[in-house]
Amino acid sequence: MRAFYVFWRLFPFVLAFMRDRRRWVFVGRPRTLSEAAHRRRAARLTQTVAALGPTYIKLAQVFASRADILPEPYLSEVGRLTDQVPPLPASKIEPVIARELGKPARELFDRFDPVPLAAASLGQVHRASLGGREVVVKVLRPGVEEVVAVDLDAAFRILFFLNALFPNHHTRAITTIVREFAKIIEQEMDFRIEAQNAEQIRANLARNPRVVIPQVIHELTSRRVLVLEYMEGTRVDRLQERINAGEISVPALLTTVTEVYAQMMLVDGIFHADPHPGNLLVDPQGRLVLLDFGMVVRVDRETRVRLIQTILAAVRRDVDGVVAGLYELGLLDPEVDRGTVRDAARALMAIAFTPDTKTHQIQRIVNEVLSTFYQWPIMLPSAFVYLGRASALAEGIGLRYDPDFNSIQFATPILRSMTSQLLAAAMEGDARDRVHDAVTQLAGIARELRDILRRAGRDELRVRAHPRDVIELQRFLVGQTRRIVLCMLTGVCAIVGALVYVADHNLFVLIATLSFALILFLIILVLPWHLLSNPLRGYRRWR
């Protein structure tokens, strides 16, 4: 029944998206809607997802970073969903603490505040005192594991139906996202994993005096209860008063955020993957505080090396290096036209690195690129999705306090200053590992070349064309065929005029038919082929 209810609420939107691609779902041309109509639909979709419950809210937050799945304005609208739910009373939370830790909260802590500091879909946080030290107690909401299991089961049942009914790269990508989300949320509901993540990131960032990670109280941590050091601070989206008072420098804060996430993502290979304003604070000393390590993504060394190479190419403004890196990272399908990607990258970099570029100009180019991502068969790896969320957070902070903030121009000198650190991370590991990687890569290239030569010798080598190129070729052939037919018609008119002149000796008919044939021939000779393949569409394109 839950699957049926969710399907009943979401299927109208799925059907509407399918009709945007083909007016009659399976056949027809794309349907054109106004920007206002898309915004109204995006608002209704956001309201529907919010009504479905916390599991789908968290899942929608993941989709809010997937430009290959959702186009604008749906990305922006879904991104406004907040993971806030009504708090549970302490009478329902304290039994969980007693079952997990063996004693009531009143005996474990010197003070336990019954009113929570925050309440989310998976757990809620209470402030307490332990041995004269202020701590926070994060408790998993009772029954949430069963609710998440039922909701995920409903989601997979619906996706099975959608993959059978609408087999395309969007439904396959959505299925992959939900499958990855199921793994992540299972880990997020085990607070022991979150404790390990917090300790590892705390150790990695220990040398940076501008960032603070709360310490874990391991003796009071279990699967459903997590006790951490209490960190006082102000949310990064509520700093205006402290900025006006001169306590905080926005450029210094953004520099810290950029350096911290660059180190976690590119150097350490493990980073905080839930960067929203509620999880980033600024303490009274002006240090950045990271909270909530339930959602953490690990990046393997090979991906980090390729990502470092791509980022350094962007810092050098090397368009070809950036495009090559995007393909090597698997961000772009090999079938995607490289020339189109290069043009988009060149346009984006040109406008982004212009000193007097305004934010709305960059946003316009970004929207065009994101629209292209939605149309192409692109599958963004999960690590890059969460990296995009971190980038969006940094840009959001900058724009909140500076309307003319340019994130690319701001981040470029920071990344350039980290070049030596990034290159050292790319070259980490001993010489034996690097030689092994090089030999493995060369062996793979040799196998691919041997396979290509073998297929060529057996006449099994196939060359695939992009569907867009095939459609263009079909239109060209149609235009040329119609041109030949019209030329034949012109010749027939001339012959008919000559025969009429021979029969009646009417010079006017001969001159008129020959003149008409000549004029028609000249028009056909100079007329563009796309006007012949589709006159109405060709006329619009010609205009």
Q: β content, as a range?
A: 5-15%
Distance between the termini: 54 Å
Q: How is the main sheet built? A: 5 strands, antiparallel
Strand count: 11
Helicity range: 55-70%
Average pLDDT level: 79
Tell me the structural class.
alpha+beta
Architecture overview:
Strands 1, 2, 3, 4 and 6 form a five-stranded antiparallel beta sheet that branches. Strands 5-10-9-7 form a four-stranded mixed beta sheet, covered by helices on one side. The protein is an alpha+beta fold and 543 residues long. Helix content is 63%, strand content 8%. The protein has five domains: 2-82 and 156-184, no CATH class; 84-142 and 190-230, Phosphorylase Kinase, domain 1 (2-Layer Sandwich); 235-428, no CATH class; 430-464; 467-542. The chain has helices at 2-21, 35-52, 54-63, 74-78, 90-101, 105-108, 144-165, 169-188, 191-204, 240-244, 250-268, 301-315, 319-328, 338-352, 359-375, 382-401, 407-417, 419-426, 431-457, 467-504, 507-526, 529-533, 535-542, and strands spanning 111-112, 118-119, 123-130, 133-140, 211-212, 225-229, 234-235, 270-272, 280-282, 288-290, 296-298. The model has no long low-confidence stretch (mean pLDDT 79). The two termini are 54 Å apart. The protein contains 23 helices and eleven strands.
Key terms:
four-stranded mixed sheet, 63% helix, single chain, Phosphorylase Kinase, domain 1, 543 residues
Summarize the model shown:
The protein is an alpha+beta fold and 543 residues long. Helices cover 63% and strands 8% of the residues. The protein has 5 domains: 2-82 and 156-184, no CATH class; 84-142 and 190-230, Phosphorylase Kinase, domain 1; 235-428, no CATH class; 430-464; 467-542.
